[in-house]
Amino acid sequence: DxxxxxxxxxxxxxxxxxxxxxxxxxxLLLLSAFLFKKSFSSxxxxxxxxxxxxxxxxxxxRDDYLSLGFFRLGASLHDIINTNLxxxxxxTFSRIKISRNGGKEL
Length: 106
Description:
- It is a single chain.
- The chain is mainly α.
- Helices cover 75% and strands 0% of the residues.
- The longest helix is centred in the last third of the chain and has 28 residues, at 73-100.
């Protein structure tokens, strides 16, 4: 099942679940910029990470409901924020830097 796959995958890396979400967010930000040929000043580079984090939470919510009888929405929101916060900060600071540079990308 999904949780077993996650447990096995996490056993190969020496990171906490929270740190893993942060790394996934950064990797998806870099991948998105490369695939879509967009700079970090474009909010479009955030889309891949956001959509992926939502998709990855669906099995977690399902498993929570099946095993606990309720959704742990707080835990899912925590994971979504961990995955997307640092990429959002990077893009926002890139946009601020460009706006201070007279609208020119660096």
